């Protein structure tokens, strides 16, 4: 905090999910340390906001240079601590930890380049009204374990670009890589502009409740999001919440199963399905069901799974034991309910948290595997008879992060997309986010948007200056 490393009286272990080994010890922040980090951010914020806009942008471009320089070391930490394979960034390479670091740099550069103009919202002969964007002050950010560095960047960089300062708490399950990334970033910034605390949910609670935290950003579960929203509401603090998804994907009757198979597969199993906007329910017409299942099964059985530090590995472990147990419970429940396990369906032997890609058919709406967000490498595939039936099924749950529609007639797919209740609906792709395209959920998937000009505005407060002529 304030540019200095501070130790804590207690620590906790961080584990490699591929091996079960302890890979490091993480400081557990105390209430006083959380207060000190917020105090440092509060003290640094006026000078940071007062910098000329071009200088603040230049500082963030320097941060992007730091991320580029240390990308391989940080990607290795992601693989060791989160589990995703190192992979690469090209179209034919596995979207793994190097992909995550590539995204960190790209999001930083694009966001740093965005303007924050003064908008003239009304003008006539008698008056001129301008909308200015002002920083909130101190942003309290709480990052998740599934994309620990990239999502931290999504919270940090727009906040800093707008003139806020930040205190971020990484997930207690993936703290080391995020703490190391922030340490490197903070060295390129004035002291106090970017600060970290670490620990479990209670540390996040102290951060949210601190009176000098002016806005909270959180990505994670619906249950924790409700707690954060409740705490923030007591102090009338604004929040941006990106919560769970359980995204539906609908294959239309005119789709080509072979042409869409790879997109569907990674749409569902990117990061072993541990992504909020992964496809987690697949609706397929009777006429294409068997062909789609066969294409997905062939991919699932062809891609190697293992320790992501080893070359050639495409799929890694689940990140933590509770998530592993949840996936196993949901698959076992589906099997007991009469569903067909097309492939996978049993944990792999050994010390790591490996669960193979699992396709499940002969299952219907209402089954726990369909209605609960599994957040793992399991995909229930549901038959439908009419597109209206598929749309009704996709919309029936109280979530609405993303969805997708797949077919050759893009006009027909577009018409279906407009009927789906989700913050983003992709056509012939799933989860294809971009740093200039706003992203956020509706219903129980949260509120507020990130990315692009809209995401930048979300970390500011509007101020109207009205001039009488």
From TrEMBL:
Every Aldehyde dehydrogenase domain range: 10-462
Active site: 242
Protein's UniProt name: Aldehyde dehydrogenase family protein
Superkingdom classification of source: Bacteria
Family affiliation: Belongs to the aldehyde dehydrogenase family.
Family matches, as PANTHER family: ALDEHYDE DEHYDROGENASE-RELATED
Region (Disordered): 1-21
PROSITE patterns: ALDEHYDE_DEHYDR_CYS (PS00070), ALDEHYDE_DEHYDR_GLU (PS00687)
Keyword Oxidoreductase: yes
Gene Ontology molecular function: oxidoreductase activity, acting on the aldehyde or oxo group of donors, NAD or NADP as acceptor
Keywords, ordered alphabetically: Oxidoreductase
InterPro entries the record matches: Ald_DH/histidinol_DH (IPR016161), Ald_DH_C (IPR016163), Ald_DH_CS_CYS (IPR016160), Ald_DH_CS_GLU (IPR029510), Ald_DH_N (IPR016162), Aldehyde_DH_dom (IPR015590), LUC3-like (IPR044086)
């Amino acid at each position: 905090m304030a540019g200095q490393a501070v130790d804590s009286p207690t620590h906790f272990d961080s584990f490699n999910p591929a091996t079960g080994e302890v890979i490091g010890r993480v400081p557990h922040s105390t209430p006083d340390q959380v207060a000190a980090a917020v105090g440092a951010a509060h003290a640094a914020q006026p000078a940071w906001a007062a910098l000329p806009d071009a200088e603040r942008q230049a500082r963030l471009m320097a941060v992007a240079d730091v991320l580029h320089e240390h990308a391989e070391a940080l990607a290795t930490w992601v693989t060791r601590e989160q589990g995703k394979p190192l992979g690469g960034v090209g179209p034919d390479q596995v979207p793994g930890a190097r992909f995550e670091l590539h995204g960190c740099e790209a999001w930083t550069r694009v966001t740093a380049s965005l303007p924050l103009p003064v908008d003239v919202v009304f003008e006539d002969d008698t008056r001129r009204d301008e909308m200015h964007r002002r920083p909130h002050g101190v942003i309290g950010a709480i990052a998740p374990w599934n994309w620990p560095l990239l999502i931290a960047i999504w919270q940090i960089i727009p906040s800093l670009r707008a003139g806020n300062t930040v205190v971020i708490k990484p997930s207690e399950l993936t703290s080391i890589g995020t703490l190391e990334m922030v340490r490197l970033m903070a060295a390129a910034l004035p002291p106090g502009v970017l600060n970290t605390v670490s620990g479990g949910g209670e540390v996040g609670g102290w951060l949210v409740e601190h009176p000098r935290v002016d806005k909270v950003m959180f990505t994670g579960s619906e249950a924790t999001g409700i707690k954060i929203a409740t705490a923030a509401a007591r102090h009338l603090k604004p929040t941006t919440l990106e919560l769970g998804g359980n995204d539906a994907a609908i294959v239309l009757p005119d789709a080509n199963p072979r042409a869409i198979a790879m997109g569907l597969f990674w749409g569902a199993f990117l990061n072993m399905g541990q992504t909020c906007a992964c496809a987690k329910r697949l609706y397929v017409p009777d006429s294409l069901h068997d062909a789609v299942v066969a294409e997905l099964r062939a991919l699932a059985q062809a891609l190697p799974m293992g320790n992501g530090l080893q070359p050639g590995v495409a799929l890694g472990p689940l990140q933590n034991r509770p998530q592993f147990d949840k996936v196993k419970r949901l698959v076992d429940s589906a099997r007991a309910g009469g569903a067909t396990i097309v492939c996978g369906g049993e944990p792999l032997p050994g010390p790591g948290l490996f669960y193979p890609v699992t396709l499940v058919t002969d299952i219907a709406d209402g089954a726990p595997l369909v209605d609960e967000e599994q957040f793992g490498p399991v995909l229930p595939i549901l038959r439908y008879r009419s597109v209206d039936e598929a749309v009704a099924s996709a919309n029936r749950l109280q979530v609405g992060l993303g969805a997708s529609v797949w077919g050759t007639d893009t006009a027909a797919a577009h018409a279906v997309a407009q009927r789906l209740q989700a913050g983003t609906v992709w056509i012939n792709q799933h989860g294809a986010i971009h740093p200039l395209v706003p992203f956020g959920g509706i219903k129980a998937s949260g509120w507020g948007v990130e990315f692009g000009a809209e995401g930048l505005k979300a970390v500011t407060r509007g101020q109207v200056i009205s001039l009488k002529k």
